[in-house]
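Email to the structure team, subject: Phosphopantetheine adenylyltransferase model.

Hi all, the expression group asked for a predicted structure before they design truncation constructs. Nothing fancy, just the C-alpha cells so they can compare against earlier work. One-line instruction: predict Phosphopantetheine adenylyltransferase, return C-alpha cells.
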Amino acid sequence: MSERIALYPGSFDPITRGHLDILQRACLIFDRVFIGVLQNPSKTPLFTTEERVDLIRQSIDADAGVDVGTFDGLTVDYAQTVGAVAIVRGLRVTSDFENEFQMTLMNRRLNPDIHTVFLMTSFSNVFISSSIIKEVFRLGGRIDDAVPPACAEALRRKFAKD
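Reply from the structure team: attached below.
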C-alpha cells in the first residue's frame, strides 16, 4: 500500500492552537502531512514566509510525519507536486464552510484526483483565528493559550518594534 499524503495549506500568520489541532488529527488519518505556507503577493502578512515556516517548525513535533514547505499559485498544483491525495481544510463554524466548499469544487474541477477533507476544530479552538489573535495582541489582550509559545514570543518581538 502506498503512503497516504495530505497537504494542509494556509497562510499561518501565525500558526495557532486551532491549526495545530487540525494538524494533529490529520496526522491520525494520513501517513504524512505537508504544511504548505502560501506566499500570497496580494496580502501583507505580519510575518515573512520564512518566519512563518520557522514558527511552524518550532511548534510541531519534528518526528510526527509532518513536512513544511512554501508555495505560490494553485493549491492543487502544489498538492500534486508533493504527492498528496488530499487537501486538509479546517472548519471552525458553519460560515467557514461556504467559502471552503466553493474552493473545493474548483479544486476538484482542476484536479479530480485530489480530494478535500474537512476537519472541524475542537470546541476549545472555535474562536481562534490568526487575524483575531493579532488584533487581540495588538490591543493588549492575552493570547498565550491560543498560540504555541514560539508564536507568542514572536508576536511580542514583532509588536515591540512598532
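The beta strands are 5-10, 32-38, 66-71, 86-91, 115-120. The helical segments are 17-29, 49-59, 75-81, 94-110, 130-138, 149-160. Ping us if the truncation boundaries need rechecking.
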